[in-house]
Design a protein that fits this description.
Elements: H1 3-21, H2 30-42, H3 46-59, H4 64-76, H5 80-88, H6 96-108, H7 112-124, H8 130-143, H9 147-160, H10 165-177, H11 181-194, H12 199-211, H13 215-228, H14 233-245, H15 249-262, H16 268-280, H17 284-297, H18 302-314, H19 318-331, H20 336-348, H21 352-365, H22 370-382, H23 386-399, H24 406-416, H25 420-433, H26 437-444, H27 449-458
Length: about 475
């Protein structure tokens, strides 16, 4: 409902509500009552819409138009069977809106074949404006996320009028949802061939490229958007995300700064993004500044607290990071990454038992963390808990067998447990990946270096997975 209609309807609704309250008497024709019903539906007030129809049918008991609005209200309220029954009682079954509503009701009831037959019938009985009829039908099926059916009618409409831009936008949307990415790109390009200043098409095209990780094309599409409207704050934000993915952090900061200046919204999210960019650049002073700004504005900003803690850890402020991480943990039940950073802080403070507890808590929340399992295993090795460390390394390699030093640490754990058969096998694998692995192994296990050298000289190389 556009602004003009909304203002016009508001005046009619005001008179209607005065009538209901007894402040004045009056008469409402069918068209006015339809407007009142639509106004309430637009506001999501289905009960008020239904009440308006009750009044209308007392004034105009033979009005099929008001019965159609009643069916529409039933649909909006989720009373699908009532809506269908109302539509089937109508004397004029060829009314356009009534047929669309019936298609909608049948679709909602998963009577899909009947809905499609009725949609085909609607097209067969009209010989003009077929592209827009197809568009209306497609909207119905899109509302039920039946994108294959919606696409079928959009393609039919495209045949009758290949220059209907509204239809092409919906077709591209369906193609995206159906993961027909090449077709969606082609459809957006058709729109741009007709109107190269269609910013929405450039933006949607950029979004597709972004999801496909075609970042250079994404930036190109966003730059076209900004050439059309440099005040489009959402494009600045998305362009910043692309530069971030490309590790072009300085460029990302510029985009996020533009977003901050142009967006009439809270700044905390942009400040978090800017803080992360500075963090990636190793500029922890500026990163800390923007992270702090973000949590000042949004005290429940989990990512902001994590960012502050990371900056403190990088600056060896381990004790200061602990209350920040505890605050982050208090905000989320799934704060497994906060527990990892907490473990790192405790470890650097030589509070090894507390560090181990934080690692355990992180892995309880999210067991599939290969790098965390490695870090926990290394801590357990330092605590001389070799069997527990071995379990961590074995679990880590199940998740990711390409982890750096995982074979070396498995060899060391087995060696500490005096299981030399497995130790040699994993040491061979580690040496094949890194020629310095044997030297590193001796540093971890200096007490058995002479034994290792002796046995390695006596036995052939053996791969043991």
């Amino acid at each position: 409902m556009n602004d003009y209609l909304d203002e016009n309807a508001a005046e009619i609704v005001r008179r209607f509500e005065q009538y209901l309250s007894g402040e004045n008497s009056g008469y409402f024709d069918v068209e006015e009552l339809e407007t009142i019903s639509e106004y309430y539906l637009h506001k999501g007030r289905t009960k008020d819409s239904d009440r308006a129809i009750d009044v209308g049918l007392r004034l105009h008991p033979a009005s099929s138009e008001l019965q159609i609005k009643r069916a529409k209200t039933y649909l909006a309220a989720g009373e699908i069977h009532k809506a269908l029954a109302t539509l089937e009682r109508l004397p004029n079954t060829n009314d356009y809106e009534a047929q669309l509503l019936k298609i909608d009701a049948l679709s909602k009831l998963n009577r899909n074949k009947e809905a499609e037959i009725l949609a085909d019938h609607l097209l067969e009985n009209n010989d003009t404006d077929l592209d827009n009829i197809c568009l209306d039908i497609a909207f119905v099926f899109q509302g039920q996320e039946k994108f294959h059916t919606a696409e079928k009618f959009l393609l039919a409409g495209d045949k009758t009028n290949p220059r209907n831009i509204d239809l092409l936008f919906e077709l591209a949307y369906c193609q995206e949802r159906l993961e027909q990415i090449d077709k969606a790109i082609e459809t957006y390009n058709r729109i741009l061939d007709m109107d190269s200043y269609m910013s929405e098409a450039w933006f949607n095209l950029g979004q597709i490229y972004f999801v496909q990780k075609m970042y250079e094309k994404t930036i190109e599409a966003y730059e076209f958007c900004l050439a059309i409207d440099e005040e489009d704050m959402l494009v600045w934000l998305q362009k910043g995300h692309v530069h971030f993915q490309l590790r072009q952090y300085a460029e990302a900061i510029k985009c996020y700064m533009e977003y901050r200046e142009r967006a009439d919204v809270e700044q905390w999210q942009a400040n978090t993004f800017i803080g992360e960019c500075y963090e990636k650049l190793g500029d922890f002073e500026n990163a800390l500044r923007f992270y702090r700004l973000s949590v000042e504005e949004a005290p429940d900003n989990y990512e902001g607290y994590i960012g502050i803690a990371i900056c403190m850890l990088e600056n060896d402020r381990y004790q200061d990071s602990i209350p920040i991480l505890e605050k982050a943990i208090s905000l989320r039940d799934d704060a497994y990454d906060a527990y990892v950073y907490l473990a790192e802080a405790y470890s650097n403070l030589e509070r090894l038992e507390e560090s181990a507890g934080a690692y355990r808590k992180s892995l309880e929340i999210e067991p599939q963390q290969a790098e965390t399992l490695m870090a926990y295993g290394n801590l357990l090795m330092d605590m001389n808990r070799y069997r527990d460390a071995l379990d961590c390394y074995l679990n880590a390699i199940k998740i990711d067998n390409s982890l750096e030093h995982v074979h070396l640490m498995l060899a060391a754990a087995y060696a500490k447990l005096e299981d030399y058969e497995n130790a040699f096998g994993y040491l061979d694998m580690a040496a094949a990946q890194n020629p310095k692995a044997i030297d590193l192994f001796f540093e971890i296990c200096p007490e058995i270096s002479d034994l290792i050298v002796h046995l390695l000289n006596k036995r052939p190389t053996k791969n043991n997975d």
